[in-house]
Design goal:
Number of domains of chain A: 2
Strand order of the largest sheet of chain A: 7-9-10-5-11
Radius of gyration of chain B: 34 Å
Shape of chain B: rod-shaped
Distance between the termini of chain B: 77 Å
Distance between the termini of chain A: 82 Å
CATH architecture of the largest domain in chain A: Up-down Bundle
CATH class of the largest domain in chain A: Mainly Alpha
Helix content of chain A: 40-55%
Oligomer: heterodimer
Radius of gyration of chain A: 29 Å
CATH class of one domain in chain B: Mainly Beta
CATH superfamily of one domain in chain B: Rieske [2Fe-2S] iron-sulphur domain
Strand content of chain B: 25-35%
Structural class of chain B: alpha+beta
CATH topology of the largest domain in chain A: Cytochrome Bc1 Complex, Chain C
Structural class of chain A: alpha+beta
Number of strands of chain A: 11
Bound molecules: FE2/S2 (inorganic) cluster
Largest sheet of chain B: 4 strands, antiparallel
Number of helices of chain A: 13
Strand order of the largest sheet of chain B: 5-6-7-8
Largest sheet of chain A: 5 strands, mixed
Number of strands of chain B: 10
Order of helices and strands of chain B: HHEEEEEEEEEE
Order of helices and strands of chain A: HHEHHHHHHHEHHHHEEEEEEEEE
Chain lengths: 496, 178
């Protein structure tokens, strides 16, 4: 007897295993059927890479950052292990989300699968907590300040809010106490919780699948022809799916490295602007649109309602065996929510922070009345306003430069952003070429590289309204333009 | 070998119809009532004991993990008063046991103001803008005036002040006041 057979025999699960392996399933499957399997695979990736990382990691204020640096630069293949763990975390959030979306679409939460769905919601929340606690561990600026913001959110819960903050942080602010706390939760509490809830989830899936087997067997003989046995046909398809998934994971890990910013500075002397975890971008962005009075509701109320809706769903939409085409209301409203999340996440990604330009407007314009010359300092992509598509931190015409007719405007342009940018004087916001070839930085369509400086001179011969724009395609449309007014008389001025 | 899978009466061991816990005979002669009462008591004591263990461990964990609410942070000497102008400077206050940014200025001769640099909205670090004379938060745009009062943005209140003491020409900063 082979050892595997011996174990199966002694465990008395032969018939169960045979039923699992040889039950008949439709031949044609969709990759969407394997999203849950993919999530499990990535979870295993997290466990393996996580254990290795834990052996090198040092959970202390003085040691955490250095130990992550060591993992990245000194430990053999440490960088790859860290990147696999980092991308695995992102993959997992996406896979769980897609997996739930699919379950929602086909109505897989209805009787008798309510517990499959509810345990799935639990796994979603645990996955988010995994990311949230893991994020702090590198102890860089990004993790420190994102955790500062994230752990303050419960403050807006009625009555118990501040106590939860204190419990999470272990004090009024983020310190080494918070770090060890998050580490313990990340590597001890959450994995145990995940396995527990996953056990329920998986057990329910397997036992509910058995009813599917029965249903398949009940089909008339002609219809049964499209059926194949789960092993080996479907198992092979699953393996192929995992090969592709792991290739994608490896591709991202090798080509896009997990960031490590400067070490956490509780005094933030470098004026780092905090950004949240990417899957909180949507909520973060939404908060920008609601009035301050509703802010607390947005922080606490919306996520609570969202979770509540997920939990209650199996008890609201109960009619069994309805196809998606018969549940249009659910499908459409779900579609709208998902579209909103995607759009808000995108907007949140390009609009991080509103870092106000600290310089006074007047510092950008100097004038010489004797020579009738004004010099405009123009910083393209200054700070994060409008996703970096701005001049001197102002976008969409918020900056207005006025010079009298007959004056000369020297434009000293610096590309302060992270993309190529240019500057040119155009007739209007819809024009994509400069007034004249002399009224633009060299090669304005390609733009200057980040950090580059260039200049040009504009003679204000005709009074009227003009536009200062970046001519790199698409940048005007994104709001990278300012107003230039040539007044019949007066003195030069600038407004931000 | 055939296995009898019928449920059995949990008192006398005879087969029962349906999925009952006891058979009709045992109910009829009153044995069931006594036995079931005893079982209920035992079951409840089991649940009670488990509950007590649970509460005990939970209490232990909470008592251990909940930060003790001690006195406000210790006073820290941050230098002679004439060092401070009307413009805010950021001080590293460590009197509470960890580094904390505190903005300090001398508003008028002999009057010191000190505000924690964590925004009252979600605790991003605010920046003092000396030309506009206001604190700006880079995260969601809350703005506070030079006296720490909230004037714009989503923050629900002003910046948290810190204890200030002046002695022998030196400025001392203490813990954050709610
Ligand atoms: S944290 Fe300052 S405005 Fe939100």
């Amino acid at each position: 007897m082979k050892p595997a057979n011996w174990v199966i025999d002694r465990m008395g699960i032969r018939s169960f295993i045979n039923l699992q392996l040889y039950h008949r399933v439709p031949r044609r499957v969709s990759p969407l059927d394997f999203l849950g399997l993919g999530t499990l695979f990535v979870f295993i990736n997290q466990v393996v890479t996580g254990i290795i990382l834990a052996t090198w990691y040092n959970a202390s204020v003085t040691g955490a950052y250095q130990s992550v640096q060591r993992i990245m630069h000194t430990v053999p293949l440490g960088w790859l292990i860290r990147d696999l763990h980092y991308w695995g975390a992102n993959f997992m959030v996406v896979l769980v989300f897609l997996h739930m979306l699919r379950g929602y679409y086909i109505g897989a939460y209805r009787k008798p699968r309510e517990l499959v769905w509810l345990s799935g919601v639990g796994l979603l929340l645990i996955t988010i907590l995994f990311s949230f606690t893991g994020y702090l561990l590198p102890w860089d600026q990004q993790s420190y300040w994102a955790t500062m913001v994230g752990t303050w959110m419960p403050f807006y819960m009625p009555v118990i809010g501040y106590y939860i903050v204190l419990l999470m942080r272990g004090g009024p602010y983020i310190t080494g106490v918070t770090l060890t706390r998050f580490y313990a939760i990340h590597v001890l509490v959450l994995p145990a919780l995940f396995l527990l809830v996953f056990g329920l989830h998986f057990y329910m899936v397997l036992s509910k699948q058995l009813t599917m087997v029965e249903e398949a067997e009940k089909l008339p003989k002609e219809k049964q022809r499209g059926l194949v046995t789960f092993f080996p046909t479907t198992v092979f398809q699953m393996t192929m799916f995992l090969v592709i998934l792991s290739a994608a994971l490896l591709y991202f890990s090798i080509n896009f490295h997990a960031p490590l910013l400067a070490i956490a500075d509780p005094l933030n002397k470098a004026h780092y602007v905090p950004i949240p975890l990417w899957f909180f971008f949507s909520i973060y962005q939404l908060l920008k649109y609601i009035p301050p009075a509703l802010d607390a509701f947005g922080i606490i109320g919306l996520p609570t309602i969202g979770i509540l809706m997920l939990v209650l769903l199996p008890f609201i939409d109960k009619i069994p065996d309805r196809k998606p085409s018969e549940r249009k209301g659910y499908v459409y409203s779900g579609g709208i929510v998902v579209a909103a999340i995607v759009v808000l996440t995108y907007l949140g990604a390009v609009n991080q922070g509103v870092a106000a330009p600290v310089q006074a407007a007047s510092s950008y314009l100097s004038t010489n009345a004797a020579t009738k010359t004004a010099t405009l300092t123009l910083l393209g992509g200054y700070g994060t306003t409008n996703g970096g598509f701005n001049f001197n931190g102002a976008a969409n015409g918020a900056m207005v430069v006025t010079i009298p007719q007959g004056w000369t405007l020297d434009v000293a342009f610096t590309n302060d952003g992270s993309l190529n940018h240019s500057a040119a004087i155009t007739a209007s916001q819809t024009s994509s070429t400069a007034l004249a070839a002399t009224d633009e930085t060299p090669n304005p369509v390609l733009g200057d590289a980040p950090g580059a400086k260039s200049s040009f001179t504009f003679k204000a011969t005709t009074a009227g309204n003009y536009v200062i724009a970046c001519l790199v395609p698409g940048h005007i449309q994104l709001g990278m333009w300012a107003k230039l007014v040539v007044a019949p008389s007066g003195t030069p001025s600038i407004k931000l | 070998m055939t296995v009898d899978t019928r449920l059995r009466c949990s008192i006398c061991g005879n087969p029962v119809d349906g999925d009952g816990e006891v058979c009709a005979d045992c109910i009829a002669d009153g044995r069931a009532e006594r036995e079931l009462g005893r079982r209920k008591f035992l079951r409840n004591s089991l649940i009670g004991a488990m509950g007590l263990f649970g509460v005990g461990y939970l209490g232990l964990a909470l008592k251990n993990l909940f930060p003790a609410s001690g006195p406000l942070g210790k006073l820290q000497n941050i230098g002679p008063i004439n060092k401070f102008t009307n413009n805010y400077t950021l001080i590293d206050y460590t009197g509470a046991g960890f580094p904390d940014g505190v903005y300090v200025r001398q508003k008028s001769p002999g009057v010191i103001q000190a505000f924690d640099f964590h925004c009252a909205h979600l605790q991003c670090p605010v920046q003092w803008n000396s030309s506009l004379k206001e604190f700006q938060c880079p995260c969601h745009g809350s703005v506070y005036n030079a006296n720490g009062q909230h004037i714009a943005g989503p923050a629900p209140r002003g910046l948290w002040p810190h204890v200030v003491k002046i002695a022998n020409g030196n400025v001392y900063i203490g813990g954050q006041i709610d």
